[in-house]
Write a structure and sequence with these properties.
It is a single chain. The protein is an alpha+beta fold and 229 residues long. It is built from seven helices and seven strands. A five-stranded antiparallel beta sheet has the order 1-2-3-6-7. The protein has a two-stranded antiparallel sheet with strand order 4-5. A hairpin with a 6-residue loop joins strand 4 and strand 5. The chain is globular and about 45 Å long.
């Protein structure tokens, strides 16, 4: 498989690989629509999102949880006339991000007796994740990372295999106030962060509340001591 892409896009995209046949197939109407929409944006270097990444037709394969610790909900889509993109839901605080840590005894995975078996059940994961995001969307930053077709040297509709150009760029957007806001573009082969670190360090900067709040019932129960040297 000739996937030459950043670690983030590589693993997020492969996380949906079990259903790849569906991801890579769109009907002629959708393909033509995508082609027309993206062609209108090509001249502005994708500083404006070429499509609405949240449209339901792009979620046809459901949510998945990529192999990171902590992981996070995401879905991916590819189209030869458009390119490849993933939409990820990143917790707005360290506490929410840690909810998706497989070792968190009170987190998402605590509801499963056999984590490995549950993780392999794509429908189960999608249903559980969908319920959480349906009621708690405001707890998450919604980030799209987009590889336009102009960045792709080779793309196979059947297998989903692709190869990127050496100067390929990944474009990042955040969904705010009911619209996609451009964050930045990065040379794909120079992206040296992945998973939560990419979002926290490179994209969200100081947006994430990285200090886990102390539960009110514990306040006042801690004693701080100092020791003279």
């Amino acid at each position: 498989m000739r996937h030459l892409v950043s670690a983030l896009c590589f693993f997020v995209f492969l996380s949906c690989k079990n259903n790849k046949a569906d991801i890579d197939k769109t009907d002629n109407k959708d393909q033509e629509s995508s082609k027309n929409k993206i062609s209108k944006k090509a001249g502005d270097d994708f500083k404006s999102a070429p499509i609405d990444f949240l449209e339901e037709k792009y979620k046809r394969n459901g949510y998945s949880l990529p192999d990171y610790s902590p992981t996070f909900p995401t879905y991916s889509f590819s189209d030869k006339q458009l390119g490849i993109f993933s939409v990820s839901y990143i917790g707005k605080s360290e506490l929410i991000q840690n909810y998706w840590n497989v070792s968190n005894l009170k987190g998402f995975f605590s509801q499963f007796q056999d984590i490995n078996q549950a993780s392999g059940n794509s429908k189960l994961i999608n249903d559980k994740v969908s319920q959480i995001l349906k009621h708690k969307t405001n707890d998450y930053f919604i980030i799209a990372d987009f590889l336009p077709k102009e960045s792709i040297k080779y793309f196979d509709d059947g297998s989903g295999d692709f190869e990127l150009k050496k100067d390929a760029h990944t474009y990042f957007y955040i969904y705010e106030n009911d619209k996609w806001v451009f964050i930045k573009k990065l040379l794909t082969n120079k992206i040296d962060k992945e998973g939560i670190s990419l979002y926290n360090d490179l994209l969200l900067n100081d947006k994430v509340k990285l200090t886990t709040p102390i539960s009110e019932k514990f306040l006042g129960q801690f004693e701080v001591g100092t020791k003279a040297n």
